[in-house]
Task: inverse folding
């Protein structure tokens, strides 16, 4: 998944989830194969929507399957994409930084989550 760094950390996480859900629905065979054979995720980022649109063009020109998520709450801007797992995808994304790395820069302490209570508990 690739999200925009100009979104808040929480929004990045949610938008990435939307892109992954879209990909699983739009590319069922690829998603099933990924789940069975790998199940690894990479959560990467680009600076803003223009960089994300450029990445989309590059992926499409290389024949890489992608799913694009547009957020209705912010004028249908492209906020995230999910990209099929492949050697070509790795080459395309090899220079992209991990998402949420900016959390350290804005003072979010990763250790503060160790004892965090869940917001919603399902079941039980």
Result:
């Amino acid at each position: 998944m690739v999200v925009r760094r100009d979104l808040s950390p929480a929004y990045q996480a949610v938008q990435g989830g939307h892109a992954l859900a879209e990909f699983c629905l739009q590319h069922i065979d690829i998603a099933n194969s990924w789940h069975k054979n790998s199940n690894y995720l990479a959560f990467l980022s680009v600076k803003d929507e223009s960089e994300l649109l450029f990445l989309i063009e590059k992926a499409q020109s290389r024949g890489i399957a992608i799913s694009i998520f547009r957020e209705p709450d912010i004028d249908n801007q492209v906020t995230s994409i999910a990209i099929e797992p492949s050697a070509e995808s790795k080459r395309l994304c090899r220079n992209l930084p991990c998402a949420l790395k900016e959390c350290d820069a804005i003072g979010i302490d990763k250790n503060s989550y160790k004892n965090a209570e869940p917001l919603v508990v399902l079941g039980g």
Notes: The first helix runs from residue 9 to 26. The chain has one domain: 2-108. Confidence is low (pLDDT under 50) at residues 110-124.
